[in-house]
Amino acid sequence: MNEKKLSRREFFQRAMVLGAAAAGAGVVLTGCSSEKKAAPKADAKGGADKKPAAPKKKALKCDDVSALSDAEKNTRNTFKYVAKSTDPAKNCLNCQLYQSKGADACGGCQVVKGPIHPAGYCTAWVKKA
Ligand code: SF4
Question: Which of 109, 117, 123, 127 for a ligand 1 pocket mutation test, highest count of atoms within 8 Å of Cβ?
Answer without folding.
Answer: 109
